[in-house]
What does this fold into?
Amino acid sequence: MTALLEISDLVKTFGTGEVATRVLRGLSLSLEEGELAALLGPSGSGKSTLLTILGTLMKPTSGHYTMLGHDLIAANDKELTAFRNRHIGFVFQFHNLLPDFTALENVVFPTAISDGRETPAARARGRDLLERMGLADRINFPTANLSGGQKQRVAVARALMNGPELVLADEPTGNLDSASAMQVMELIAQINREEGTTFLISTHDEKIASLCRRQIVVGDGVVTG
Amino acid sequence: MLYALKIAARYLTASRAQTALLVTGVAVGVFIFIFMSALIGGLAEFILSRTVGDISHVTIQAETDDPPLLISPQGHVLVVAERGSTRIATLAEAATFLPLIEGVAGIKAVSPQIAGAGVIKRGAQVSQVSVIGLEPGRESAILDLEGYLVDGSVRLGSGLILLGRDLADDLALTVGQTLRLQSAEGVTAALTVGGIYQTGNGGVDGARAFVSLSVARTLFAMPQGVTRIEIKLFDLNAADTIAARIRSLTGLDAVPWTDGAEQLMEALDAQAQTGYVLKTFALITIVIGVASALLLSTYRRRPEIGIMRAMGASRGFVVFVFVTQGALIGVMGGITGAALGYLALLPFPSRDAFQAGTLPIDITQGSYGVAIALTVIGAILASILPARSAARVDPVTAIGQ
Ligand SMILES: Nc1ncnc2c1ncn2[C@@H]1O[C@H](COP(=O)(O)OP(=O)(O)OP(=O)(O)O)[C@@H](O)[C@H]1O
Ligand SMILES: [Mg+2]
It folds into this structure.
């Protein structure tokens, strides 16, 4: 296995002066291609902060971050936007989907952004992904009418749309009952097995974490296990 | 960016009622814009046609020569020729200039005239009139006598005279009856009333008479030349330039109607300015309405904007989505407003049939294209601020982990 990404000495401080909070204090981590990793740690330990930095949505205060040979600290907003589109998928806990669009339109979004339009090929792939997520009968459903579990599965399908090397999921099952949570998690594990996509999933749920081959624990702003 | 257009259109159709309200607001602004354009334009047209429609647009008036002085070498004034009080200045070479003037572009009609004063006598009754000799066949060149005729014919010939309605009534004259006209030069002619007209202008209807040029020559003892040449133009506003062209072409003193009409021009100008102010306010209302609605929409859609940015949508894409929304609202509101404006103006009489007591609205001066174009531009400008604030949304806080 080769390294997909490497971070080292990552520091993230929010605010300045008296109210400054050092959330990450020199955190180092590397992820291999095809890993299925759980990100654990107490509330406020900086899991979301780490995922946001890994997702290039936020820059660290200091530290190094390279992925697929790209220095993502030095890159500008435009380069990062294009990079995210190509190489990183996201599944968030809330606010995942565009409510005025159908399930298929949501899934196709990352490809349509880079193509400039919804191509038939992209639609076919989107449909295929939704079928794999067990949503064959919800393809043209307005997402506002989907259940929480269905929404998260649509979000997973969308995260996979551009065939990214890395999918970052921040408590993707935090809102779901345990049955739906397990269903989403099993789909993620299946995609990881079949396509070799690397997943990093933050969770408080031991059962979810146990389905991952690696557990990364953060505490006090560094990786503790 | 076809895809941004799709998203913009979806955003607008997703909140249908809000979009309908916004488009209606824009349409009302456009409606006001168009209504004001048609009203101000129609009003100006109306005032101009009422005030200068029947008068000469460019007039070439003969200049009265100063009385010649005969001065001795020693400086004593030997002879002063007294100017005859009734002596009329003439354009002696008018006949040679006429074809030249008629050749100038933009001229609708040229009317050489001999004008003078006289009195009409019928029995014991006497009326002062200003007598104008017109070229037969061109009677209606300046004043539309044909259009104002109430009885008889406008055709002038030897022994014929046209009278205004008031004058005819005063003298109890009807078509076919004869009268005696004595000119200020002392020449008397017996003339038959050929026609009676009514313009609605008291001075023209009560104290003016038209005869043929040859009758006028006899009356005013003017065997050749004319006293003035009146010229009608296709475009009222071209009077200044055409007068200048005639001056340089002939050396004659051609005076446009705008000379001495400064007050009218100022009034029309002020009216147009008022129109611009009102139209500007209509546009500002549109811009503020669109800007505030879109700003609200960007705020409401912050999480979605964050998601789009996380999925790899560039800032430019987000800007495009919101500017396109503004443009779509502008196009829809502009076209709706223009259509409403057109329909609302349809019942008004056309510009040739303005009636007293109604608004002189000119449907052809609605500036529909300008209204739509300005609205679309305004709506796009209005959407720039919301679009920029949307593009600056931080995906991390917007998605709100
Ligand atoms: N924008 C911010 N400004 C200031 N402080 C912040 C900001 N974002 C996060 N923090 C702080 O950073 C710390 C880590 O937050 P983070 O969301 O990364 O924790 P987490 O491990 O994801 O917690 P949870 O398990 O509850 O989701 C918290 O103390 C939080 O208050
Ligand atoms: Mg978190």
Chain B touches chain A at residues 1-3, 6, 10-11, 14, 303-304, 306-315, 317, 395-396, 398-401 (CB under 8 Å). Chain B has two domains: 2-51+264-400, 58-66+86-260. The longest strand of chain B covers residues 107-122.
